[in-house]
Every structure is written in C-alpha cells, then in structure tokens.
Amino acid sequence: MGWPLECKAKALSNPNSRHSADTQLLTWVQVVDFERTSNIMKLRTSAVLYAITLVLLSGWSKADAQNAPIPIPLTSVPTFSTANIGRQGHFYVGGKWVGEPGKEYMRGAMYVEVWVPKKIQFKYPIVVIQAGGGQTNVALLQTPDGRPGWAYDFVNRGYTIYMLDLPARGRSAYVPGFDGDMNPPRTGSMMEEVWSSGRPPATPQSTWPQYTKHTQWPGDGPNKGKMGDPIFDYYAKTDTESPTGRDMERLTADDVLELMDLIGQPVILLLHSGVAPSGWIAADTRPKLVKAIIAVEPVAPPIENAERGSKGPGRLWGLTNQPIHYDPPIKEPSELRPVSQDKPDGPGLIPCWVQQEPAHKLVNLENIPVLNVSGEASYHRPYSHCIAKWLNQAGVKTTYVNLEDVGLPGNGHQMMSEKNSAGIAKFFMDWLEKNIH
C-alpha cells in the first residue's frame, strides 16, 4: 500500500505545507504498520485456532474410540458373568497378637470372601472349608481349563457362598515361628500321580486299585495330565505352601466359629480333604448353627493313617485330632476302644476302624444330616467310606455316595477342578434341596 500521489505532489509544491505533509506521512506509516500488525495477528490467531480445533477433533476421535463397544466376553482373558451376584464381601475374622513386647505379630486371621446372589433361593448359606495340601479358594473360582468354578455354580442357583483362605494360607498371613514350617508346593511328579493320573503311582506301597479309572481330569492329547500340558501347568501354578503348625486344626476351627457367629444363622458346611477336621470341630461346638454337612472326601480314615500306604496314628478322636464331644463323655480318645474290621467292606477297600460296642455317640452332631461322597478313581477311595461308617455308628445320620453310582464316574480327589465339576455341584444342591428344609 503506497502514499497517495496527489498528497505527495501537493506537499512538494507548497513549502508551507511541508510540515503538514510530514505529519500526514507519519500518520500514514502508522496506519500501515497497524494494518500489517493486525493482519499478522489475525493469521497467527487463525493458525492457533486451527491447531486447537485439530487437537480437539483428535481427542474427540480418541474418546469415541475408547467409548466404542468392546466385545464381551474377551477372547484372550478368562472372565465370567457376575449377573447373578447381588453383593460381595471381602473381610477377615479371627487373629490375635502374639510375640514378646516390641515384636508382636497378628497371627491366625482368616480371609473370607462372600458372594450373595441377587435372588436368594436357599436360605442356608454354604461355608466351604477346603484348601488342604497347598490349595486356596482359587480352586472354587475357576477350573484349570478355564470354566467357572463351584462358587459360580452355587451362586447362580441362588446360594450364598462363603470361601476361605485358612490361616497361614493364601491371603491369610503366615507368621514364622508360630505357624510351624511351611511345606513347599507339591512337585510336578507328585501332582501327576495324585491329582491327574498323568503317571502311575511310584511304588507298590503308594498305589491304589482305582487309579486307572481316572477319566475326568481336563485336557486332551498325549500330554494330558502331565508337566508341559497347559491345563496341568495352570493347575500347578495354583498350588502353594501349607503350614505345619501343630495347632492349625484348632486355630482354623476357632476362625470358622467366629465366622459362623458373625453370620448368625444356620449354615451348610462343605468340607474337603485335609482341613475337614476343623469343620467337624466347628459343627461339634456350634451344632445349632449347622443345618447340614457335605463331606467331600474329608481326610480319613479314623484312628490310623492310610493315605497312599502311610501308617501311624491319625484322627484319634475319630474325625479329628482335637477333642470333640461323645456321650457317654470321654477324657481320652483311647476310651473309644477302637478296633479294626476283620475284613474290608468290599474289593479295593481297606478295613475300617470302628468302636467296640456299645459305641459312644457324637451327641452334638446327631441332628445334623451328612452327605459323604467319594470319587471313583481317587486315592481316598480305599478308605473314604470309613468316615461314614464311623459317623453312622456314632449316631450321625450319614448318606455315603460313590459318585459313579449317581452318574458321575471317573473322578479323582480334586474333583472341583475336573471336567464334570458342575455336575457334582448340581448333585450336592439337588441333595440339599431334597433333604434340608
């Protein structure tokens, strides 16, 4: 933009107007500079606004992408619907301070997880006492091959379920010097032998006649049930240490009792494997808070160990290593006067220990119905029935079931992890709904 020619000519021809022309020239220059600055500012503002617009559009695009529907269930991560779960709880019971002043530890607390269905169909909740030999309540959540575990089976049918990490296991603290030494997880070869039948028993003494009938361990192919198979390896990852403290049976029972008192209404106890004695103690101590017991291969037999050829005393009070109530009362377990059967009750079984008649009665358990079950191929099979025999002789109405007799063949001891786990849970619930009111 130039200074107008007519203005320039007038200024040069009239000396008197020189000063005025200079003033006009200065004014024109200022106007030009302002217009240039204004145009530059407009350009810069437009560039900034354009950049901001790009950023916002990019952000909106990303937000839209993030908010876009994602296919459920995920294909790469095992997840299960919680549509039938109305509430969940995660808390601890038990525990007390131990140790010298200045070095106190909280010992014996037990982690509890509860699932409450949206629609409760059965008024008695199930308290599961399992986790013997290195297991935690993870075994109830998911099977090794990625199916929903027993916890989902129960809650989906309308049962409230309590799951426990017993003291010094899983999410319940282990205190060295008080909880005994920790047994390491089982070796792979041992798990192949007792859980999956991936290999035969190691010795004639540790064998059992039924192991060849094991068909329910999950997996396919020549490596099924063996180290290196993805399903077997996944199960092995869930196996943990187990405490050896001599008071763990009583300590666990005390925590279960505190939980039962907290619940404040009758429950169903589901007992499994080596920690079952704590459940028997809890039922004996609070019989009015136990509506029924499902005993899934509880540690057995009474009086003397027999697991895979082992020997020596075990559960001298019949069901437990700790005192429980008999009538007539006894002060020492020897007063039960146990004797071994002359011959076993059938092929592939061992003789059971029973009381000499007249038998002492488990007076606090007499009004609690018990379902005792055993897997067809389990290493517990040779002696599982001995618990039911002891209970019935002691006046406790106990139904003993070999699972193959109700259409559930081929199971080992860790049946909640096996292919027909949902069918077994259904059998338990069917029994409860037929017998418990």
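(the above was protein one; protein two follows)
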Amino acid sequence: MSAWPAWARRFVLPAITTAIAAVATLLLWPVIQPTASPLFFLAVMISSVYGGITAGLVATLLSGIATAYFFMVPELSLRVGSGDIFRLVVFGAVALLTNSIAAERNQTQAQQKRLVEELRAANARIRTLSDVLPVCPDCKRVRVSSDWKTVERYLAETPELQISHALCPECSARHFPEFQAAPK
C-alpha cells in the first residue's frame, strides 16, 4: 500500500473501499436490513489504517452519503428523515473514533520504526568501536580499512569517541617533577 502515491492513498483508496462496501451491502441488503453500516465501518477502518486521517475522513463522508442515498428512505435520494439523522450521526461519531484510533496506531508504528532505526545505527556504532584496532608497534599508527593513520587523526575522525588529555603518573613525574609530592 505504501507504493501508492500519497494522493491515491488519501482519495482513491477510500473511494474504492466505500464502493466495495456499498456494492456488498446492496447484495447483502435483504439479509442485513435495517443496518447498512458494518461494511462501511470496514471501509473507514481500512482507509484510516492504510491511508491516514484524510483517507479515513473521506471514507466517512463517502460512506455517510452512500448510506443515505442507497439505504435510507426515500431510497436514491439524499433526503434524510429525522430518525435516520441519528443513525448517520452515530455512524459518523464511531467512524471518527475509529479514524482517530487508526491515526494513533499509525503514529505509534512510525515512531517504533524510527526507534528501531536509531537502535540499529547505535548498534553499528558500538560494533565499530568494539572492533580490534591494529596498531603498529613501531610508529604507533593505526590501520583503518586499508589506510594507516596517526592515533590523533583516527580519534579526530571518529566522532563516537570522546577523549580527554591526561598524564599518567610516570609521565607527570618525568615532565613536572616540581609538582610531585616529596617522598615520606
């Protein structure tokens, strides 16, 4: 469904699902009278899940029009009696609730997909940082792929690593003897 362009998901999908619901309801009408809405709810649900909020609203509107035109007295007319207005209002309210639930589901699914991608990227960075790093014992350069770089250059080009400068006790004593504590 994601291969469809956005406009098709928003407008063509609800038109198709509503048309299928209308034809199926017409065929099943002798069996399901006086309730025409179950298949139209399905059209709204499918449109909302696969097309988003706009598609759900379009399906709700088209389903309401189809229900009023084909299944309410007088048939083949958009005039609606007072008893049928309540049925249309209830249908619209339930369809809007279904649409909002589907929108929340789609938003949660998109957030989940984004978090999975972030986890994959973090896992790749961790894997890169935990790999063995070959170091030349003579010049102390490191091999990255097929290039040899100085340790300083490698650290500068690896933003995932954060380093700070510090002197070990031996180097500190050798370079700054005046700051060393006198032996007791």
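Reviewer note on protein two: The mean pLDDT is 85.
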